[in-house]
Amino acid sequence: MPRFKNVNGERIQFTAAEETTRDVEEQAWNDGAFDRALEHLRDKRNSLLIQTDWTANSDVTMSSAMTTYRQALRDLTNGLDTVAKVNAKQFPTKTGA
To answer: Would you say the pTM of this structure is higher than 0.70?
Structure first.
């Protein structure tokens, strides 16, 4: 399917070279989908860990529920090798922590 660009208000079809360049760009974007999804998951996971970092202070006794919760967060990325698995991953809940 041909692609078009807008040049000074005029719709112009891509040249063969432009089509090739755009195909390469799109392939690079698609190839990075897993890394982007995993980065998003890790960002959220890291934020949740930061919110509970205070429980690891030396003057605080961490509950076993909190220990379990934090370990589950750290283990969240284990075994993820597809975008679908990353998107389907459920975050642990902090109930009882």
So the answer is: yes
Rounded CA-CA distance 19/95 in Å is 52
SS3 of the chain: the string is CCCEEEECCEEEECCHHHHHHHHHHHHHHHHCHHHHHHHHHHHHHHHHHHHCHHHHCCCCCCCHHHHHHHHHHHCCCCCCCCHHHHHHCCCCCCCCC
Confidence of residue 97 (pLDDT cuts 50, 70, 90): low
Distances (CA, A) of 9 to 4, 13, 93: 12, 13, 53
